């Protein structure tokens, strides 16, 4: 069932019903101010950090679902409705939502009134702008009232949810007009910090307002039917403690075919220390007024909206595909890259599945996300690498997560995820290949966020590599620590009751569980680290790294091969995990992907056999499951992975994040048909017909799809913020289409289905424009017959980088 359609010309996804199986959302903002917005107006806003600077409240598991947001209510002679259907849920005469790049519009009509809402965050601004356009489409005059409504969060979202004995006494607002605008200032905490507040404004005088939630909703009311709206009044309330809100009422009369519109602003204001107001009972409104003057006119609104569109068009022009497959083009050119940018901004911190109150930014997550956006915003990628590295410890391990506002490591989560250090090499290598900017390696970077203890970034990479080198287990495979990429595979831990905190096994046994997955990482990114060393003239170190990598390949071949596939691990007792000897969990996806991506087994047939086992044992029509057979009971020696029911999450769910690893691995062995088949199975553009089963958005990737053992096989969860975005773009752009940055230049190495006869890619690389045409009229899957660059034949498949050449016309024949 299709619940909408792609409008490729406008780079929008059009949702045609408000009753989507789950809220289908978009992200507004790409710098510091962000808003999550659903197709029915739900969601929330924050500045930089969804935990510490939350502007508006949202209740994740509320019923009705997604019934907190930024809403408009229309009372038309007793008929009360919302342009986006929620939260009143009055049946609309028409409805449409368009999610675009950094903006969302939705419109609804009822009884001859059409209401059109457009929301976005301007480039360079710390506010959300919304324009409400109203049109009387009937043949009679219409008199009605419109109410805006948001509910403020008291900044720290955790405190706001938990510490009511304090928060119910701290809410403060100010209300005053500014020029022709109506303004509500949310100044809770200003008495304490005296430098920040929120602003809610309307570019018109209002006919009433409310800032106290009980006054607007009623003590036992709800957003579904506010008392004030039902009574067609406002109480002009001023919040003092309790729950501050912002609502403006406007009474409107429109003649037949007459239109009107209003602009609303939700802004964040932070005054520098030298502009703090002396009197704590009043706030310094100077910057708020400047923001209003900048944006609260129709001309300013339109100009800011056009700048936003221009920003995204320029950004996405850095990699564009032309081919006959429109589904592939819309994912490569628009939605996959857009999602990569959202994951850059959010990591895993704020979605409709991540509340923004706990995880913050992930060390591993942010390093992987780099792979998907470094070609778009290399300067931001550079800073992100340095931020990540600064949470590393002196021994090479790292905080697993950090808060985006403070950039401090999250001590609640701590460290011990032994794959983390190698991801820093992966992200830095991706940056170096893309930019050629080796100066980043000289940047002095703290350890453990301690500015008194710094070292060049290169030293951080060295300690990352050496951490794994010096943390090997009985089989000379890397120690897994608390976990590797699979956070739920806790082989050094046990719990007697599911849900209890895991306990370490104790010093007598020691944390000796080993990871074949990390071994594959070590080989793949060890080779990148070796290349970095050689570029810097550190040949002795490079030789040592090469020897260590070769030793790891030997260890994997001798102790990590199970006969038909790669083992997953050894547990704390030295027992195999992911072996045919196991009753359940005999084969895992992760090592098959990463070991083959690293080139292990490509010279002796092991790689092809492992991938054949994946196809035979893990493949389904909706994607490749993480393991088989699923675990049917809890195993304390394996940890959280066995706490999930069969077919969900890490227990044999289709974990979309690592499906691209298998696709990339298939390109390594030259299987273009299989690589593209794996790609398509989880690609949103190819799943339109199962939108009602899939449930999550039809335009972005989800983290997980329920596996074949699950009660709801094919149902997705955890959309938007997932490493799937970066890995799928890396897979399709660099390995299937095969336009891949390398240390010495741009590599042309497609591995495509034999029925794809041609395609063209326009790509910006190190300041030059590359126009690349791939001719596959021979029906090959991989292998270049010829490579012509600016009219000259080039040996091999790498176009050497020449800083003096700014345009390349490339023809590659397979």
From TrEMBL:
Superkingdom assignment: Bacteria
Alphabetized GO MF terms: transferase activity
Domain spans labelled Glycosyl hydrolase 94 catalytic: 311-738
InterPro entries per the UniProt record, alphabetical: 6-hairpin_glycosidase_sf, 6hp_glycosidase-like_sf, Gal_mutarotase_sf_dom, GH65_N, GH94_catalytic, GH94_Enzymes, GH94N_CBP, Glyco_hydrolase_94_b-supersand
Domain called Glycosyl hydrolase 94 supersandwich: residue spans: 11-296
Keywords linked to the UniProt accession: Glycosyltransferase, Transferase
CDD domains: GH94N_CBP_like
Protein name: Glycosyl transferase
Species of the source: Lachnospira hominis (ex Liu et al. 2021)
Lineage summary: Bacteria, Bacillati, Bacillota, Clostridia, Lachnospirales
């Amino acid at each position: 069932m299709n619940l909408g359609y792609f409008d490729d010309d406008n780079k929008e996804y059009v949702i045609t019903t408000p009753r989507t199986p789950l809220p289908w959302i978009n992200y507004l903002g790409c710098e510091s101010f962000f808003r999550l917005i659903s197709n029915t107006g739900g969601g929330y806003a924050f500045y930089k950090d969804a935990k510490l600077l939350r502007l508006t409240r949202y209740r994740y598991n509320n019923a009705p679902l997604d019934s907190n947001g930024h809403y408009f209510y229309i009372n038309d002679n007793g008929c009360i409705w919302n342009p986006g259907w929620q939260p009143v849920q009055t049946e609309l005469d028409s409805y449409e939502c368009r999610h675009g790049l950094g903006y969302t519009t939705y419109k609804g009509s009822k009884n001859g009134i059409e209401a059109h809402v457009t929301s976005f965050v301007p480039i360079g601004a710390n506010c959300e702008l919304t324009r409400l356009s109203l049109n009387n489409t009937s043949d009679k005059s219409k008199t009605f009232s419109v109410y805006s409504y948001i509910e403020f969060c008291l900044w720290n979202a955790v405190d706001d949810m938990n510490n009511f004995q304090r928060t119910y006494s701290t809410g403060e607002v100010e209300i005053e007009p500014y020029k022709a605008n109506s303004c509500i200032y949310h100044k809770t905490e200003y008495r304490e910090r005296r430098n920040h507040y929120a602003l809610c404004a309307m570019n018109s005088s209002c006919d009433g307002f409310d800032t106290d939630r009980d006054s607007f909703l009623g003590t036992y009311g709800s957003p579904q039917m506010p008392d004030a709206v039902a009574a067609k009044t406002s109480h002009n309330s001023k919040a003092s403690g309790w729950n501050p809100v912002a609502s403006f009422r406007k009474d409107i009369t429109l003649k037949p075919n007459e239109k009107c519109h209003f602009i609303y602003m939700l802004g964040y204001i932070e005054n520098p220390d030298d502009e703090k107001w002396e009197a704590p009972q009043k706030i310094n409104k100077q910057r708020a007024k400047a923001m209003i003057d900048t944006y609260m006119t129709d001309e300013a609104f339109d100009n800011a909206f056009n700048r936003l569109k221009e920003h995204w068009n320029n950004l996405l022009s850095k990699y564009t595909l032309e081919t006959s497959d429109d589904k592939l083009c819309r994912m490569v050119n628009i939605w996959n890259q857009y999602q990569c940018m959202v994951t850059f901004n959010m990591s895993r911190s704020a979605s409709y599945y991540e509340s923004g109150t706990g995880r913050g930014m992930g060390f591993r997550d942010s390093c992987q996300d780099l792979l998907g956006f470094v070609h778009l915003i290399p300067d931001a990628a550079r800073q992100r690498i340095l931020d990540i590295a600064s949470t590393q410890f002196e021994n090479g391990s790292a905080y697993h997560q950090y808060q985006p506002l403070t950039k401090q490591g999250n001590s609640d989560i701590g460290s011990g995820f032994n794959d983390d250090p190698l991801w820093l090499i992966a992200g830095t290598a991706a940056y170096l290949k893309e930019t050629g900017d080796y100066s980043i390696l000289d940047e002095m970077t703290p350890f453990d966020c301690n500015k008194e203890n710094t070292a060049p970034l290169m030293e951080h990479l060295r300690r990352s590599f050496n951490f794994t080198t010096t943390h090997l287990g009985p089989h000379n495979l890397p120690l897994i620590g608390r976990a590797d990429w699979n956070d739920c595979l806790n082989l050094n831990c046990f719990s007697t009751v599911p849900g209890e905190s895991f306990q370490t096994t104790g010093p007598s046994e020691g944390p000796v569980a080993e990871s074949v997955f990390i071994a594959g990482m070590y080989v793949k990114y060890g080779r990148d680290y070796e290349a970095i060393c050689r570029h810097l003239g550190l040949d002795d170190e490079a030789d040592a790294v090469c020897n260590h990598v070769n030793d790891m390949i030997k260890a994997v071949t001798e102790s990590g091969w199970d006969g038909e596939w790669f083992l997953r691990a050894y547990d704390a007792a030295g027992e195999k995990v992911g072996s045919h000897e196991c009753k359940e969990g005999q084969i895992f996806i992760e090592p098959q992907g990463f070991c083959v991506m690293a080139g292990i087994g490509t010279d002796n047939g092991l790689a092809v056999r492992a991938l054949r086992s994946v196809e035979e044992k893990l493949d389904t029509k909706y994607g490749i499951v993480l393991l088989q057979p699923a675990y049917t009971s809890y195993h304390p020696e394996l940890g959280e992975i066995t706490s999930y029911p069969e077919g969900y999450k890490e227990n044999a769910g289709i974990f979309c994040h690592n499906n691209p690893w298998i696709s990339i691995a298939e390109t390594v062995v030259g299987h273009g048909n299989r690589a593209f088949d794996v790609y398509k199975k989880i690609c949103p553009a190819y799943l339109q017909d199962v939108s009602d089963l899939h449930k999550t958005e039809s335009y972005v990737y989800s983290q997980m799809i329920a596996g074949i053992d699950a009660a709801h096989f094919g149902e997705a969860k955890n959309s938007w913020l997932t490493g799937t975005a970066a890995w799928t773009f890396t897979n399709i752009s660099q390995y299937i289409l095969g336009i891949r940055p390398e240390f010495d230049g741009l590599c042309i190495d497609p591995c495509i289905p034999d029925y794809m006869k041609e395609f063209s890619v326009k790509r910006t690389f190190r300041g030059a424009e590359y126009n690349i045409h791939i001719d596959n009229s021979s029906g090959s899957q991989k292998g270049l017959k010829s490579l012509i660059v600016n009219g000259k034949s080039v040996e091999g498949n790498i176009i050497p980088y020449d800083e003096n050449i700014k345009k390349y016309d490339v023809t590659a024949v397979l």
